[in-house]
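ok so for the tutorial part 2 we go from a plain amino acid sequence to predicted structure tokens. step 1 is just haveing the sequence, like this:
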Amino acid sequence: MPLNWKKAVSQIPASVPLHAVHAMLITLGAIAWVLASVLTVSAADVNAVRLWRAPDHTRLVLDLSEAAEFSTLSLDNPERFVIDLSQSRLTASLTALPLEGTPLSGVRSGIRQGADLRLVFDLSASVRTSVFLLPPNDTTGHRVVVDLFDKTPTEEPEPVLSVESLESRRDIVIAIDPGHGGEDPGALGPGGLREKTVVLQIARRLENQLAKIPGFKPMLVRTGDYYVSLKNRRDKARALEADLFVSIHADAFREKSARGASVYALSMRGATSTTAQYLADTENAADLVGGVELAEMDPMLAGVLADLSMTGTLDASLNLGALILEQIDGVARLHKTRVEQAGFAVLKSPDVPSLLIETGFISNPGEAERLATPAYQDKMARAIRRGIQSWFARQPPPGTLLAWQREQGGREVTIAAGDTLSEIAERYGVTVASIKTNNGLSRDVIYVGQTLVIPEA
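step 2 — the prediction. this is what the tokens look like for a chain of 457 residues:
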């Protein structure tokens, strides 16, 4: 409350000497300055400090009660990175941060100039820094994001080629992208179930299943709990020279009654349904939640999408997605019986067939319960794997092991009603075990419409 100087002076008795009045006014002024300092010193509280480690950088997030001005500087001998937050205070603990495996050896705090918070990050290795402020969203308030990029970043994993690849028989590379991660939990289900956790588990199961099939090399775009921007997800798939990009999700909708799994491809025009548009808008906003510096938001130019190569890529995406949808229909209720389309930013690679698979609505209590179970995750991964395998058995990319097998007279069979593995093995003069090994089957169960590659006798 501001001090009323006129009222204060008028209430001083006339008998008080002038020098005493002067001293009293100085005292009142000092008290007012102290009160003003107290009121402004905690304009913003740092309520939490969170940390994630990614393959090529470390991310720190400062959760603020209000927006705060900040400045940074780097210091040598020893190496330190410093953030000064104007008129702020720290209410969170710094002792429990998981620093192991990061370039940080310690984090300290202090107060400078009476009201500013200084955070000092002790470094054990050289880093390149990026610091930016993010506005509030539906789930978080103001945040200062600190990215510490390794000076010698981990090289992008190269596809590990089989021995046959040396003779133009390379593996088919499948880039598997678990959505969200780190700062961005994705959709939230009952009991605190997080989309980012569920989809990483499904992605790992899909990776393990594909890795067992000769001629396939699955690669995870996100291997742990950290955020990857939508642009970087596309870029990683292209750097791997992937033959297919599959982004796995388990989203939410406004109504909890919404349910069913879906497969989405990119739309170069409008969305095929209201739900498709809603989910595309939700997924495209992930960078605002996960935290991406404005300069990194570099959407693909519209002209690129009109390129002729995009037309072929999109056709392959739609046809492949239809096969995956057929397989998912055997393990889950479908939200739509056809591949839907919308402007998902993560699918905008002009030269890599790309699909986004919603494995169910985590906002639906029944589906959330299933999505959390290993058995359902395994079934969903198996359905996706069967669809992928069926497509590439029919359309193997040139120069791959599967294409070579076809050129050598490799045989395919599409499962019809009544077929059994033992009958197929007898028909082609091979063993059931060799068919299972060649197609990554762990059980003797086969499905109508499934395509199997029969090994040489």
